[in-house]
Amino acid sequence: MFLAALATLACALSTLEARPLAKKFANSTNPFGPLTLKSDGTFQISIFEDLHFGENAWDQWGPQQDINSVKVINEILDAESPGLVVLNGDLITGENGFLENSTSYVDQIVGPLVDRGLTWASTYGNHDYDFNISGSTILAREKKWYNSRTTQMVFGEDAGVSNYYLPVFDSNCTDEACAPGLILWFFDSKGGFRYQQKDESGERVGQPNWVDFTVVEWFLQTNAELVNKYNKVTPSLAFVHIPTFASYVLQEGGVNPNTEPGINADLPLAPQAQGWCADGRNDGSCDYGGQDTPFMQAVSEVPGLMAVFSGHDHGNTWCYKWDRLLPNMTVAPHNDVNLCFSQHSGYGGYGNWERGARQVLATKSKLENFEVDTWIRLESGSVVGNVSLNGTYGSDRYPATNDTETYCPTCDY
Questions:
Q1: DSSP readout, 189-233?
Q2: Which of these, 167, 225, 160, 213, lies nearest to 187 by C-alpha position?
Q3: Among 349, 382, 402, which residue's Cα sits nearest to residue 68?
Q4: Neighbours of 400 (CB within 10 A)
Q5: How large is the average pLDDT for residues 38-59?
Q6: Which domain of life is it from (predicted)?
Q7: 188, 221, 229, 236: which could form a disulfide with 162 (CB 3.0–4.6 Å)?
Q8: What is the pLDDT of residue 174?
Q9: Domain extents in the chain
Q10: pLDDT tens digits, residue range 168-215?
Q11: Residue pair 270/189 in contact by the 8 Å Cβ criterion
């Protein structure tokens, strides 16, 4: 049976490129089968953010951080029951990695998932791109595991790697002829440095830190094809590591701890295109270049997109409904979309905010109204920020989130 499954998989992969774009379901050939709602009409996602494995492997505290991060993953998964785990960027601290073993940390990260028979999908973040590591090399390591659904649907030097989508079907119809009940979009915001490249001065070559316009074109085209194919707007969610400038402006306007519950400790947050000039220079002379404008325009105009989940800023865990033209911005959202931060999950990376993972629960009945529920499970077992991203989110009132911290006494902060 196993050999037959491998043969089927190889055959499917060999014919994948010949299929029309809207039929390239990234999970259709996965040995785990298509993603589906449970029989009760629910589908849960656990988002692990900023794990930062591989810091200072030559010191005692570096490996200890990774041990603690594995413990966090295990504790969260013991308490939750996701149908999909999302690893939403900065899986590895690439600047501390060596070419020979920089991606081996993937095996440590996914160990708890493999042990539980869980499947996952990744986006890559700025620390996943450096001289000795790249999205392509991480993807190759991920593909050693059948549990991985991470793939690449857009190609090009500036596109990044982790740009793709996954459909989630009803439990009683998983054929591609059936309309998905939910679509999950994954975007690569890149950043960091170009793999194995140095300039004439021997310095690493910086890489753009925004979703490329070619990816935006793919997103809009593919979404239009899906709408045409199924003659309906399908509810969707998106995942991208670095938040957009819209989140930056929303934060400047004020995050209310009762209407947008969560930690708001990274002030100001770091958006896509930070540190770049509008003309493409990244010499430190500009604060923000605006290159994420096409991506913001796309996520604000695609019908059915309920929320975009990001990380990058370890001290922010709130969701904010982007429903209006914001000061100093030219993009006015055509559709309300919630811009959310997840929770810093790893002991690597800066900050001692209590580690955890954002959970997203899609329910068939609520998807009909383009609504989902979300909360954060902390490593202590506590649940915070339990909200419904519905039509009244932003005016509904919730308990404020306490700013709790966790420490590793043997780690270097």
A1: ---SEEEEEE-TTSPEEE---S--HHHHHHHHHHHHHHHHHHTSP
A2: 160
A3: 349
A4: 15
A5: 96
A6: Eukaryota
A7: 188
A8: 66
A9: 28-389
A10: 999 888 677 789 999 999 999 999 999 999 999 999 999 999 999 999
A11: no
Rg (CA), the chain: 20
Query: Position of tokens 């975007």?
Result: 187
Binned at pLDDT 50, 70 and 90, residue 32 comes out as confident
**Which residue type sits at 15?**
T
**What's at 4, amino acid-wise?**
A
d(CA 194, CA 130): 6
* 3-state percent helix, strand, coil for the chain, nearest multiple of 5: 25, 25, 50
**Total residue length of the chain:** 413
Give the Cα separation of 165 and 185 in Å (integer): 4
> pTM of this prediction?
0.92
Task: Return the C-alpha torsion angle 298, 300, 303, 305, nearest 10.
Answer: 100
For 392, the token pair is: 């009244």
**Residue 2: what are its φ and ψ, rounded to 5°?**
-65, -45
pLDDT at residue 177, rounded to an integer:
77
CATH dotted code for 28-389: 3.60.21.10
Q: How far is CA 413 from the centre of its chain?
A: 25
337: exposed, middle or buried (Cβ count in 10 Å: 0-12, 13-18, 19+): buried
Amino acid in position 398: Y
Q: What's the CA gap between 88 and 345, in Å, rounded? A: 10
The upper half-sphere exposure of residue 326, i.e. CA atoms within 13 Å in the direction of its Cβ, equals 23
Render pLDDT for 74-115 as a digit per residue (tens, 0 to 9).
Answer: 999 999 999 999 999 999 999 999 999 999 999 999 999 999
Banded pLDDT at 31 (limits 50, 70, 90):
confident
Task: Return the pLDDT at 332.
Answer: 92
Q: Averaged over 337-364, what is the pLDDT?
A: 97
Q: For residue 220, with 0-12 CB atoms within 10 Å meaning exposed, 13-18 middle and 19 or more buried, which class applies? A: middle
Q: What is the DSSP string of 300-331?
A: HHSTTEEEEEE-S-TTB--EEEE-SPPTT---
Where does 27-143 show beta strands of DSSP type E? 35-36, 42-48, 84-88, 120-123
CA distance 340 to 244: 11
